[in-house]
Request: fold
Amino acid sequence: VTNKVSQNLHAELYLRLLGRLEGDDGSIAQGARVVRQFLMNAGVDPGDFLFYDGSGLSPNDLITPRAATTLLAYAARQPWGALYRSTLPEAGVDGTLSGRFDRGLRGKVFAKTGTLAEVSSLSGYLTARSGKTLVFSILCNDREPEGHAAREAMDDVVRAIAERN
Reply:
C-alpha cells in the first residue's frame, strides 16, 4: 500500500519502526540514521540525499536522480529485488500509475511517483523496446501546481527512453 498508492502515513510509521528495530529507539532521527547507513552501504553518495522524515514531505528532504538510480540499480541486484519492484505502481495497471502510459508501456514501467505543491517526480524501472530493463529518475521543480505539464513531460521522457533503447 505504501508504494502503490503513496500512503505517506505508512511511510512515516515505517521510519519509526526502523528506528525501533535497527536503531536505539523508535524516533524519526534513529530511523533516518538507519536509512542513511543503508543507502551508503548500497553505494549512494551521502552528499546526494538528506532525509528528515519517512514520506518525503519535509521541505528539508533532498535527493538527486543519481542517488535514486543508484539505489534502484542496487535493489535490482539483490535477492529481494523482484519483490521490491512488485511493490511499485505498474503502468496502466495499478496504484498511482494506473491511468498512465496506456500507449505501449502498460506493464513495462514500475515506478514510484512523488508529488508536492510545486514538485513532481517519477523514479523506477522501465522495460525498453529492446527488452532491456533500465532504471530512471526524473525530478521536476517549479511545476505549475494546477497543471499536468510536468507529469506529461516526464511521461514523454520515459516513452522516448523506451523507444530508443
Residues 149-164 form the longest helix (16 residues). The chain has a mean pLDDT of 94.
